Amino acid sequence: MAVFAQDDAIVGVKWGVGGQSSSAILRRASLQIEQYFSGEIIKFDLPLRVNGSQFQKDVCAVMSGIPFGETITYGDIAKRLNVPAQAVGQACGGNPIPLIIPCHRVLGATGLGGFSGGGGGINGIELKVQLLRHEGAAGLLI
Length: 142
Hints:
Layout: E1 2-6, E2 9-14, H1 24-38, H2 54-64, E3 72-73, H3 74-81, H4 85-93, E4 106-107, H5 121-134
Parallel strand pairs: 3-4
Antiparallel strand pairs: 1-2
């Protein structure tokens, strides 16, 4: 997993690529990701910058407020922002900072929905399931 920063703020996370933590913010992000997976923390405390449209930023702001171990639907976010659920799904899929901005906590009305982490596709869905299990939200998957 690689974390990308710009001007002392996290701007991206990519799975499947290595990265070096050469700055203080990248080292901090790497440490917090390790702590998340080891169960030491349940919330990230990092400066973030979503590079995208205002709508993308609004959806990411809502996702950032979803507590550890809880989920909401694309429709829930759509109602909050007064937009179509499909647009929310597209914005979730375009989340540039998956995991730290927890798009894995957003589900479809009748299923898991997608996940941009892991490159999308089946690998993304498997990763979404693993993250939800890690957070104790696995009861939703039965």
